[in-house]
Amino acid sequence: MKKLIIPAVAVLALAGLAGWFFKARGSGAEPEVLTLQGNVDIREVNLGFRVAGRIAEVARDEGDAVRAGDVIARLDPEPYRREAEEARGQAASLRARLQLLEAGNRPQEIAQARALVREREVTSDNAQRLFKRQEELLASKTVSVQEWDDAGARYREAEARLKSAREQLALLEAGFRAEEIAQARADLTRAEAALASTELRLADTVLMAPSDGVVITRAQEPGAIVQPGATVLTVSLTRQVWVRAYIPEPGLGRVHPGLKVRVYTDSRPDKPYFGQIGYISPRAEFTPKSVETPELRTSLVYRLRVVVTNSDEGLRQGMPVTVISDFRH
After folding, report:
1. What is the span of the domain harbouring residue 312?
2. Domain check: are 252 and 319 in the same one?
3. Are 47 and 233 in contact (CB under 8 A)?
4. Angle separating helix axes 178-203 and 78-103, nearest 10 degrees
5. Burial class (CB in 10 A: 0-12, 13-18, 19+), 27
6. How far apart, in whole angstroms, are the C-alpha atoms of residue 272 and residue 265?
7. Pairing of the two strands 53-58 and 33-47
8. Model confidence over 142-156: pLDDT tens digits?
9. 181 and 280: one domain?
10. Contact 214, 65 (CB under 8 A)
11. Structure confidence by residue, pLDDT tens digits, 7-62
């Protein structure tokens, strides 16, 4: 009996020692909760026209909410409307010319040319008979050499006029050259491109909100002459809302894109926002001044971006927040 008790006590002692060893090692392990400090980062966009002109209307004021596609400002469109009408007329003219060249000559024109050929054939035949008769009379000394020369000249003239009529008929029947049609088609393409450009400039006289947001700056008023790209309104976008936070190099192994986190603000500490890490910078940088934790002020850290999935008006640009990830969930 004593022989059995001694091994059992030894096993229990070893088990206790192993438990104490692993507990001692575990006391130095990293905590399961990761806490980071950061600031809300809301994107802002400066909106302006792509064309120059006189502002006719600014439809939103500072503090107004806008939705994607809302018209928020307009330029006087009249100069661009007239430019588009001129380009439209030019394109229509060249389109008609191309259709004319592709269709060829009208049947009536070809029929008229054929009638002219027949008429000159008759004239040429008559002139030829008269010339031969004068040639026979010249042999018998009945007509003078001058009369024979005149008859020959009239015959040669009739032949030349007949040849000209036949060539004109051949041109009408063949239609226009392929090179002429290609040139007309290229002219039409250029005119249509110019028309599209003028219509685009006309459309650019209307300024629309690119996405949902809130107007934070109204920089121009109706009547002002603005150049392309000049800021008219500045809009703070409501989607996406991000948190810019920083993590030291030893903690990089504990975070990854897609990691779920909770975001706390000082104004509502009991109601967290939810999000996930969307980006981790591949480069180290010095801790920015906005990070207040003393341990990180002199350290190199990596910037990460947290995408807040349930953001609302409670999150404001630059607001300090606390980002917490509980690895137990």
Report:
1. 29-43+237-326
2. yes
3. yes
4. 160
5. exposed
6. 7
7. unpaired
8. 777 787 777 888 888
9. no
10. yes
11. 444 444 444 544 444 444 444 444 567 888 888 888 889 999 999 999 999 999 99
Q: Which residues contact 26 (CB under 8 A, 6 or more apart)?
A: none
Instruction: Please report, for the domain that includes residue 253, its CATH number.
Output: 2.40.30.170
CA 71 to chain centre: 19
More confident call, 169 vs 262: 262
Is pLDDT above 90 for 217? yes
Residues 227 and 268 reside in one and the same domain? no
Q: Do 89 and 183 belong to one domain?
A: yes
CA gap 265, 75 in Å, rounded: 42
User: Which pTM does this prediction carry?
Assistant: 0.60
CA 191 to each of CA 18, 82, 100, 185, 232: distance values in angstroms, whole numbers, following the listed order? 88, 16, 17, 10, 33
Under 8 Å between Cβ of 183 and 17: no
Kindly tell me the burial class for residue 263, based on how many C-beta atoms sit within 10 Å of its own C-beta (0-12, 13-18, 19 or more): buried
* 180/280 same-domain check: no
